[in-house]
Amino acid sequence: MKKLNVDVAVIGGGTAGLASYRAAKEHTDSVVLIEGGKFGTTCARVGCMPSKLLIAAAESAHNAQHTAPFGVFVDGDVRIDGQKVMQRIRDERDRFVGFVVDAVDGIPDQDKLIGKATFISETELQIDDHTLLTAKRIVIATGSRPAYPAVWNDLGDNLIINDDVFNWTDLPKSIAVFGPGVIGLELGQSLHRLGVEVLMFGMGGQVGPFTDPEVMAYAQKIFSEEFYLDADSTVKEMIQKEGNVQITYIDKQGIEQVKIVEYVLAATGRRPNIDNLGLDNITIENDSRGVPIADPFTMQTSVPTIFIAGDASNQIPLLHEAADQGKIAGSNAGVYPNIRVGLRRSSIAAVFTDPQIAMVGLSRKQVMEKLGSCGCFETGAVSFEDQGRSRVMLKNKGLLHIYAEQGTGRLLGAEMIGPQAEHLAHLLAWAHQNRMTISQMLDMPFYHPVIEEGVRTALRDLNAKLRLGSAMISECMECGPGC
Ligand SMILES: Cc1cc2nc3c(=O)[nH]c(=O)nc-3n(C[C@H](O)[C@H](O)[C@H](O)COP(=O)(O)OP(=O)(O)OC[C@H]3O[C@@H](n4cnc5c(N)ncnc54)[C@H](O)[C@@H]3O)c2cc1C
Ligand SMILES: NC(=O)c1ccc[n+]([C@@H]2O[C@H](COP(=O)([O-])OP(=O)(O)OC[C@H]3O[C@@H](n4cnc5c(N)ncnc54)[C@H](O)[C@@H]3O)[C@@H](O)[C@H]2O)c1
Hints:
Belongs to the class-I pyridine nucleotide-disulfide oxidoreductase family. By secondary structure, the protein is α/β, with parallel strands linked by helices.
């Protein structure tokens, strides 16, 4: 066994690990990055990027099939070539992965170790069976993986996860998606729009990331109009049958149905990759899921020399959070013991369905926990169904709820489903991080006719409810028609 000594070891060469490595290198030359799988990151290989490529193809098919209301007719069938769809996704995915791999190639060889790391002690890691590494400080950046009931493994090759979808060479005919969360909705809706028969099954009524019951109910209605979605399903049996899967379930009318699908996609959540790290060999404080608890401002765990970042931390499993956490953890591992708090931004999340979904700042559930008992917050609302620009573009589906604090009038957060929610969410997140009040937001410029006028309507509604502005005018002509 080879023996090495370093100042900082980073376990995991994904987004958080690469950010940690770079940040640690600014403080010491003695840093090693350990990767147990392939470099290239989850985001580029099987996450953010290929999922958005699939969505782009689906959007293109959907738009081509829905021109008639504008008086524009694409005569003949819109033909979807599954092989070409998947070819573009794989080609572009490989291109994105290539950029990451090129960047990793630029890291000196002596700074990289290939193999799975496990803890032997608080300062010792074993890498496969080839290296014993002693590190003064360690960053855990091992990412996450899909979590689903073990019994589903009986479905063999018919059970798939998101990783498998992006390696397809053609589209299947049918699929059952379990989990109408972020991944299930993005992939399920796209596949439906590309001509795949989709059945979507959820648990307990949860749809998307919502905590606001009205916004969630709206989303459920919109998606259910497009494909079969039962957010609180009863699935009695799933068995392999002649190369397919036979599913027996009780439908939304209470009638037993038996359907055959080619694949079952498990999109029922993800779990941090910390269970095979040998953490039993050290004394570290864990949360209820067995994940080391870390200070969100320093990413330091209860073992002062061990830091954690990215999906592994069980905090906010998003790309920009992984990058931010990685930078904080790596920098603190580099400068230890003089650790510093890092920049934590206002929370923002977008789901690239149609309509899009977004969450900003505090969720309604968090607002309720903080201010619910004293009734110290108000909710401003806008429906996008009659919103001018949304209607012009026939994208007039959506509901936005914005929460603000009574008295101060400060923006607390928002939950929404609606057109271009990714952009509206950025406006709101920037305002949130700047600790703006609803009145200050209303002082900002709004062009006409734009979807942002819908945000203004929700802000006006909110300001009136906060008793900081006048009551809403129902037919406000000076705002511009359909604002
Ligand atoms: C389908 C899908 C779509 C997504 N879309 C978005 C999106 O649109 N926007 C967004 O913000 N986020 C999105 N995400 C989430 C985002 O991809 C993750 O939050 C992010 O990639 C996490 O980065 P990470 O560095 O924590 O993990 P990873 O990039 O997974 O890196 C972890 C690395 O650690 C390695 N590793 C694990 N265990 C060991 C070990 N013992 N020893 C050595 N190495 C080890 C792994 O091989 C891996 O390379 C999506 C995720 C999925 C699955
Ligand atoms: N656009 C984006 O930013 C994006 C896209 C994809 C993934 N992600 C990240 O990946 C994370 C994981 O996504 P996810 O969709 O796997 O998790 P999720 O937590 O968003 O959704 C899981 C869903 O599965 C349901 N579920 C759980 N067990 C079930 C069962 N046995 N049967 C049926 N349904 C069941 C849950 O009720 C929930 O609705 C997200 O939280 C997000 O951070 C982000």
